[in-house]
Amino acid sequence: MASVHKIIVIVGFISLFHSAFSAAQHRSYLRISSQEFTTLPLDIIIQAVSSLFAVMWGVLNVSGKLREIPAAAELNTVKWETQRNLPSFYIFNHRGRALADDFVPTPSKGELENLE
């Protein structure tokens, strides 16, 4: 049964490319005949839409049964106490240090070069 769906996908893609080629050919014909473009012919639109639906239906059937993605799978192994522990957001060099009574500012790079 899967081979039938693969054939539907292939035929749908070929039909979709054919409708795109037909649309481009129709535009070039209008340009050559100096006519104004208003809309595509109805047969090209029907072919494009039906082949698009055929491709979508075939791909959904070829891909197999859809499964649910367990969003909390990796959270099942994490303990509750460490769940909000985000070490990448730790900041040790911030301005709150200047509010401490025993704060001694670290010398800048320029000051360190002058000391040498």
Distance between the termini: 81 Å
Q: Helix and strand string, N-terminal first?
A: HHH
Rg over C-alpha atoms, rounded to the nearest angstrom? 33 Å
Number of strands: 0
Give a topology summary.
Elements lengths: L1 H31 L9 H21 L46 H7 L1
Helix pairs in contact: 1-2
Q: Briefly, what is this?
A:
The protein is mostly helical. It is 51% helix and 0% strand. It has a domain at 2-62.
Note down, in words, how this protein is organized.
By secondary structure, the chain is mainly α. The chain has a domain of 61 residues. Helix content is 51%, strand content 0%. The protein contains 3 helices and no strands. Helix 1 packs antiparallel against helix 2. Component of the ER membrane protein complex (EMC).
For the structure shown, list the relevant keywords:
elongated, 51% helix, 0% strand
